[in-house]
Request: fold
Amino acid sequence: MKQVNDVVVIGAGPVGLAAAAHLLAQGLKPLVLEKGVSVGSAMLEWGHVRVFTPWSYVIDEAVAAILEKNGWNRPDNDYLPIGREIVEQYLVPAAHTPELASAITYNAEVIAVSKENHSKHTSADRQDARYTVHYKDSSGSTHIVYADAVIDVSGTWATPNPIGLDGLPVPGETENQDAIAYGLPDTLNADRQHYEGKKTLVIGAGHSAMNIALNLLKLQARNAETKIVWGLRNNDIEKLLGGGINDKVPARRELGLAAKQAIDTGALELLAQFKVERIVKNDNGLEVQIVNEGQRSTIYVDRIIVATGFRPNLQMLREVRLDIDHVAEAPSNLAPLIDPNLHFCGSVRAHGVEELSHFDEHFFIAGMKSYGRAPTFLMLTGYEQVRSIAAELAGEHDAARHTAIKFPGKTLNKSACCG
Reply:
């Protein structure tokens, strides 16, 4: 196995900084390329949202060791932070430590990864070739850096799923982007003017969509003209509102109870087995042609919020020899472990290099992006991924394969479930 020294980490979110900290602990040299102007730039876009897990599940121990060396005090382990608090109280202080500050380059959007002098089809001496990582700076100029290994933890936030049930935008979706928001807009504060007193269609069958609907209900309490239609593309509302993970995570259980009450009282309109066929803009807003429980009809709204999940950007990796599952778009050995039909975030066992390796040696996809289209990622899982990868790159092969997730009060080994 070729000796590793320089490692490029793509993305300076929680798992990206954890990767850098673990690499430093192993005596390796990380270079973190972050396309935003700050660490956690994607997280700041949903910075108003409270996470379901407390600080004790959010902090990586290698990052904490660097922070505490520089006088940082841990926040309350039991407190559930919002995204902005995670960035401001954890990621930014970590990025300002002497150990990590010099390792991060901002305004560096990675556009491609390849092998030096080797396209994807070139095999001769391929394993000995360094990686080339191409990125654009804020002026649009392209730069190339070289590395012995690459860890892609760029996440999926920038590539949300479109509305169509076939995985593609529906007719009229692309043309009306000014009235459509993806992900988790801040409907109560920064984006309030777009939603208060308006009628909004929320599309999605997960807890993010539920959270959005409940926030819109808070606007409705202030302004009765605020109307909410919640469209579920399946009819699995009972699973979403109660049972399963909701019984294990109190914050989710409370969310489900609140949503159920809103539906029962008619405060929000629920459309299940719902499909959008076309979106047309007219003088009164958006005309949305739908099929609901097999019947075609038209609804009229001012805005649409699409909370249908995310997918990985694999275009930037076209010249890398990946081992990717054709359905989940996750590493092939990981995909069966994260099937959302079988697992929630706490039931995926600890895993590392064995599940995350690709055909090109020393290239890894980790963090949220490693889960492909599955929505079940947990930060602690990502921290264990990069700990294992750093150990492997440092030649500590036994440590890399002895994977475990340490939750407060218990340790889950490679064969355990954290449900």
